[in-house]
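Summary for the funding panel

The consortium committed to producing paired sequence-structure records for every protein in the target list. Below we show the first two records in order, beginning with the earlier of the two.
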Amino acid sequence: MTKIAFIFSFFIVFLTFLCQISLSMDPITATFIGLFLSIGYAGWNYANCINNECCDKTWINYDLAGLKGDLRDNLFGQHLVESVVLKAVKAHMNRKDPKKALVMAFHGDTGSGKNHVSKIITRNMFKESSNSKFSHLYIGTNDFPYSDDVKRYKDKLKKEIEEKTKLCERSLFIFDEIDKIPPGVLDVLTPYLDYHESVRGVDYRKNIFIFLSNAGAINITRVALDFWADGKTREDITLKDLEHLVNKGAFNEKGGLQHSDIVTKELIDVYVPFLPLEKKHIKECIISELKRQNLRGDVNMIANQLEYFPAEMELFSVYGCKKVAAKIDIYAS
């Protein structure tokens, strides 16, 4: 038993003893003992939360300035993501009593930055970053691998969402590979995402839910190609150009959101489209990774080792920044 645990156990026993004594005392004495117990508990809670993660402002810091700078400096080629995510998270965090949980759906091809942005949000939300006990990651192929186990997955997910929100009302839930989750599983989340002040006495409106999916990537890429063919820059692409296409893809393409209540009830606050990365953005990823590892390498040469499409012009990266680190391991020094 750790020293903290021993002190805590002793404190609980002592408080129980005082409570029993107070029951046989006169009202004034009992009131003083009650006050002492309240002060003692507050003091213990404060001391405990100095070294152990608690659901308070010390550990949940909501560094909005840090989030803005992190997105600006460490996200490449995603002007829509940078703008939309910052505004959505800022608005939600600044509300003491939001009307509902913030629900964001990140859609785009492999390596476009969906996981990367989720990590940026996490590290600017919790002092312990992704190690926080209030940050929860579900991966489609790992947590929901079998299509015939929908009921079991729903029961398990319902139980965990409720338990984790009771532990902290400012929790973050990230669902990766939702296009690999059996249809119907995510419908169990519906009451926790809706405009309810409480569900069985628990308020879920301060939570944040993020869904990551490849669904809609084909439509996003087509729009990006059309803009390029028309001589427009990718920065000319607006959320309006893509959001309805991503919404349609999420609802109709096979996966966790296919024909889901979450979509039909319009509980997703914002669909965030991740554009396919161009070769110049891959070079930025390479430079960033070289700096992170304190390595030297020929950026152009490393970039040329990766695949691009359409083949005749090598405009977009096939895997985004996903394979950059592996190529640096081979070609950098």
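The next record, for a separate protein in the list, is shown here:
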Amino acid sequence: MAYFKNIGKIVYEGRESDNPLAFKHYNPQEVVLGKTMEEHLRFAVAYWHTYVGDGSDPFGIGTAIRPWDSLTGMDKAKARVEANFEFMEKLGLPFFCFHDRDIAPEGETLQETNANLDVIVALLKDHMRSTGKKLLWNTANMFTHPRYTHGAGTTCNADVYAYAAAQLKKSLEIGKELGAENYVFWGGREGYESLLNTDMALELDNLARLYRMAIDYAKEIGFDVQFLIEPKPKEPTKHQYDFDAATTIAFLRKYELENHFKLNLEANHATLAGHTFEHEIRVAAINGMLGSLDANQGDLLLGWDTDEFPTDLYATTLTMYEVLKAGGLGRGGVNFDAKVRRGSFEPEDLFHAHIAGMDAYAWGLKAAARLIEGKVLDAFVEERYRSFREGIGADIVAGRATLASLEQYALQNKPIRNESGRLERIRAALNEAIFGV
């Protein structure tokens, strides 16, 4: 059955095209810095927003019109699988991502839930085999059900912890079965509302224990996967334990887990943490923990996770600049963890949204490549820090300097002359890289 009957194959038509259902910038086979756009970007569709999301918000019920709306239960789950591969084929998306509860409904018991998953996983595997599409990552939804009201890996209830471990075990088995390249931990309720009733030390210790169990079980079943943690500062809890990249890296190092994990970074989560996306990517990259990206953007006038499709060309350019400078995403990719606006409720809007996001990232990739090839930013940075490449600066960097030697140098009372950071000039150069013809 075709679910998007009025939509054909979306192809690259170039910047002069006036076809809204065509790519203006994303040309999968175009080579940029030695790799094709498809290889650089590794786009993925987010199952939850695209097929499960209904446009509801805290103030109103869903508005989305979807071809599978008339179905329920496992029939709806099977229809979504078919729609997913049709959607991916028409957009040329190589990857998809899902939570376990996105693909199959939860049953009355864990046994029934797992049986539902087995049916859908077999269907997914068949479609993957026939289409060549791949699973970028999967994860377990351990935040929606009321049992997780106090968290999963950081719950105060040992019975809930055991259930979470069982759900995680099944999710790892699914990842192996479908050949997932990554497995993501998103701590939806791994945090706290108040320290007045929280044993933070126990909660963090238990979370680390759960991660170690996952590492051990993946080895046991031969699941060759990159584990990722997705930082988020708040929502739904007041303070998430994986607040941002730096906090998450500190956690991993405290528990000696840093060699087993990288980070799955989301743009809107960076905004909520008071950072830019490029800041979070740089922090992860310089610590050797850049894994994958969730591509979206927030609304700076709103204080919550709006998950809009990425269309800000400055943001996508600086994002891809950081990714390219870090050597790429490796096994990761660019997953559109984004949802159409509540007023964009027709099925066709799903295509318009993904086209806009894919074109924005392709534009950003090309602009970032121009910055790198022309050494536009590198030249400024190298010049700004040149004092650390000679004389006393070289001694500091080489570790030869001591407080005493630096004091002796300062006592010479040589004139100190700072130079301008030339930020406005740099921003003008950035404009030219993005919009210059």
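Regarding this second record: The radius of gyration is 24 Å. The longest helix spans residues 347-373.
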